[in-house]
Amino acid sequence: MYRSLLSAGLLAIALHVSAQSTVHQVVVLNEGYYDYFNGGGQLVPVSLGSYDPATGSYQTMATITGPRFGSDVLVDGGSIYVAADDRMLRYDADTYVQTGEVMVDGIRKLAVWDDQLLITRGELGGLPHYFEVRDKATLELLYAITPADGLVHACEDVVVQGDKAYLAVGNAFEWGAFVGQVGVVDLSTGVLESSIDLGPEATNPEKLMLHEGDIVAFCNTDFTHSSISRVGLAGQNVTYTSLVAANSGCGASTKVTANGKVYFMEYAQGELARFDLSSGAVADTLAGTPAVYGLLEDPVNGLLYATTTDFLTSGELHVMDLEGTILSTVAVGVAPGNMALDIRLSTGVADMTQASWSLFPNPVVEQLTVSGAKVGEVLRVLDATGRLVLTQQVSDVRTEITVGQLTAGVYSVVAEGRTPLRFVRQ
């Protein structure tokens, strides 16, 4: 099972600009279906699609022939980068026209540092190297860290903080010989600086997350159970390792910034659970949530995007609140495990009014307060399909809108010349 979530670097950008940014689209990489067991080959091709949060609609934008699966997708600087089996592809984020392609055997995950693309690799039988850096514009190889340089095992995830890249080193392609390490690469020199051992209960790290200057690693161990480790980067020491799941597969996980918890797929229960990073323990299980394949935080709107699939013929994207309630669902492609947010800054007239135009609380149950709108302005509330459901004229610097009669879901408050504000009716 191959999937990807939002890279930590993009998440950091999203948090930095959330006050003046919007989610333009959720990019979905559908792995398709390759028949490994019966020799049928590629029965459903890999595809790339776009979900529009404003309208709740989804469109397939590109079909990728050749790769058996997709393993990551990343949005950066108006481009979409896709890791797919044996190659990396680049697309324009507006037109979805392909703008580049380069062969990279065993490509796994992607991250960006300045004008460079960071790539991890892993494959059955081994590869000459497991981490490489390419020019973001030309896709040309700049350098690689080889086994002779100290990186001797296959890698999975990669995150960036400052001028350091942190690699999830698991050796996941050599069954029974899993390791658990975080490799530290100095990107200014291109040197593997050190390797942090996560310990025997934290082998096969699949997902790395940044939290309060530390690394959080979600590990699949030997696929019989999962664990979460917190690594203090200042001392390069493991603060704790906690067993979190009695059964494990390619477990979806993501850190939610708003509450400092890691949401992860608990396979034994078939539901999402939450791990509290402060206490180092599982906090609760979100009863009734679906058995998700991919999971992504939307820090701009305080939402989760989760995917489900039968791996053969269908897949769905669910918009969820942070308590696991499904707000809306749309059909996507087969095995939609990889997602990325296309976050864009507001521009034009809306930029000038955005700072004084806000709403709270969000999510909301009954009364929504809109502040900063001018007296006399007409506020319109639209549902996820763009249908008008409420109108109200502003009579004060703070306007109360009663939304308790609306069904649970994602809505937008719009006014002429302003950036729309989204909210969740719980």
Compact description:
This protein has 426 residues and is mainly beta. It has helices at 8-17, 349-354, and strands spanning 21-30, 33-35, 41-44, 46-52, 57-64, 72-76, 79-84, 87-92, 98-103, 107-113, 116-121, 131-135, 141-145, 155-161, 164-169, 181-186, 191-197, 205-211, 214-219, 226-232, 237-245, 253-256, 261-266, 271-276, 281-286, 294-298, 303-309, 315-320, 326-331, 338-345, 358-360, 367-371, 378-382, 388-393, 398-402, 409-414, 421-425.
Structure description:
The structure is a single chain. This protein is 4% helix and 52% strand. The chain is built from 2 helices and 37 strands. The strands form 10 sheets. The chain has a 4-stranded antiparallel sheet with strand order 5-4-1-30. It has a 4-stranded antiparallel sheet with strand order 6-7-8-9, with no helix packed on it. A 4-stranded antiparallel sheet has the order 10-11-12-13, with no helix packed on it. The longest helix is centred in the first third of the chain and has 10 residues. The two termini are 32 Å apart.
